[in-house]
Structures are given as structure tokens and as C-alpha cells.
Records
---
Amino acid sequence: MVSGRPEVVMETKRLLLRELQLADLDALAAILGDPIGMRYYPHPFRRAETRDWILRNQTRYAEDGHGLWAVVLKEAGQFVGDCGLTIQTVEGTPELEVGYHIERSHWRQGLATEAAMACRDHAFTRFGSDRLICISSPGNAASQGVAGKLGMTFEKNVVYKNLPQVIMSMSRPQGAVSS
Ligand SMILES: CC(C)(COP(=O)(O)OP(=O)(O)OC[C@H]1O[C@@H](n2cnc3c(N)ncnc32)[C@H](O)[C@@H]1OP(=O)(O)O)[C@@H](O)C(=O)NCCC(=O)NCCS
């Protein structure tokens, strides 16, 4: 963060991805606390859990150079979700995962795909990652639909954090340059 303004990490046609800040708490708590949006999670997040989520991602920015970032509609300046890159340990192996949550009234407009494509490209070019995964609940067709649009395919079923989960993955495309 520079002089109180959260850092913009990426820009797409319609979106800005910038670092999350505690000022996002109300908007993010509405998304992560939505019982319909969060039906594949053990429970919708309480406000304190969303606050911890923001703080955890701020730690990730500092330690890993990435995390889940705020997704903001460029023209309206409206916060509509999060999307980004986090390290998740799956069956003992650290993996780079792309994750996303979009506010329900904005579903099905391609926003998660647009944000996640920018994150995917960032993972392969900026971070030089060899691989990227997406972890989702078996019934979460929306999450798997986004992962499919990124170019991921089904890899395996696992138990992750004591829950059955689907791993979709992709390798770094040939020719993707890391810098
Ligand atoms: C997953 C999520 C982020 C998708 O956001 P979105 O902006 O609506 O996704 P997109 O518009 O980019 O959809 C991309 C594709 O995913 C699939 N998809 C999206 N929503 C879907 C749904 N409700 N049912 C079935 N497929 C769906 C479609 O293939 C879609 O492409 P299409 O619209 O051209 O058919 C959103 O549903 C969400 O926030 N869900 C709750 C949080 C969550 O489960 N996050 C993932 C955790 S693993």
C-alpha cells in the first residue's frame, strides 16, 4: 500500500484487481456471508471471519507476493468480489491455486473468468509457476466452469480440509515467458 491507497495489481477490460483493505469489509462480508453464494463452504462467513480473510490476504501479499485481490468494476468503481492466487497444500504438496468469489447480482457476466484469466497469466508469466490448480466442491459447477474456461481440466478427487474436493489443473503453456 502506498500513501493509504491500495495498490492496483492488474487491469482488465472491465476490472481492476487491487489489494484488499479493511475498508472493503462491509462489501466483502456481504459476499462471503451470502448463504447462497457460500453454499459449497462449511458455512457462510461471519463478519469476523471476513475480517480475518482480509488480514490473511494482506499477510500473503507481503510474504508471497500474491493473494486474493479485490475485484472492482473499473467504470463504476464498485467492489464486486475477490480473485487471486494463493498457496494451498494438497496431499502434502504446496500448489498455486486461483480462487474467486463474485457478488451474486453480478454472476454470469464473465467477471470471474475475466479476473481469473488475468491471474492465470500473472501466475505463469510474472511468477513463472509451472502449474495452476483450482479446488472446488464436487457440485460447484460455477467454479468448475470458470476453471474450464481458464484451460483447466479435471485432475483428481481429493479430501482437502476434511471435505471431498475436485482438483482441476493446467500446466504453464509452452511459450509463456516468465520474467
Ligand atoms: C464461481 C463464481 C465466482 C463464478 O462467477 P461468475 O462471474 O458468475 O462466472 P462467469 O460468468 O465467468 O462464468 C464462467 C462459466 O462458468 C460456468 N458457470 C458460471 N456460473 C454457473 C452456474 N451458476 N451454473 C453452472 N455453470 C456456471 C459457465 O460455464 C460460465 O460460462 P457461460 O456463462 O459462458 O456459460 C460465482 O458463481 C461465485 O462467486 N460463487 C460463489 C463462490 C464460489 O463458489 N467460489 C469458488 C470457490 S472454489
---
Amino acid sequence: MQFCPECKSLMRPIKKNNKTVMGCSCGYTKKDVSKPIVETLEKPKEVEVVSDEETLPITQAECEKCGHKEAYYWLQQTRAGDEPETKFLKCTKCKHTWREYS
Ligand SMILES: [Zn+2]
Ligand SMILES: [Zn+2]
């Protein structure tokens, strides 16, 4: 048994466009009941691009440009294997980026 989602009364099969559909006295008709209802998958919403900066750790470093004392940092391998990773710093204030030489 199926009940009308509109008025909650019992629906009965009715003929519509040469097809038997479930209908209700209020006028509600369920679309073609002979086929299984294929739910159209909602397109996944585009993931908001989170700027890399927000995920970077912050360290205490003085920016040579604006004198700010906090900077994001990350490590980057510049050459294949034989060299240690280079530490890059980016001022949290003016976005000035520089590398730290060890
Ligand atoms: Zn109804
Ligand atoms: Zn700065």
C-alpha cells in the first residue's frame, strides 16, 4: 500500500497516458510505478579551495620586508635526495616568502 505524500490518503492505481500509475484523489500522481525509481545522484558540490596558507604551521621568524614576527613555514626538497630539505617561510602579514638558509 502506498500513501499520498501530499494528503496521506491511500493511493490507488490509475491509468495515465496508457500507463498505470499510483494516484490520489487529491490529484497527486506518482510517476511511472512500473519502473524502479532511479534517483539522480546529486552532483557533489565543489570543494571549497582552502588556501594552503591556512594549513601551514606557523613559526616565529622575522620578516625582512615588514618586520612581522610570524611566518608560515614548509619544507621542500629542492634537489634529488643529496641535499637536505629547504625551509621556506612566508610572512603571515605581507605574504613575503623567503627561504631559510641553514
Ligand atoms: Zn493526496
Ligand atoms: Zn612581512
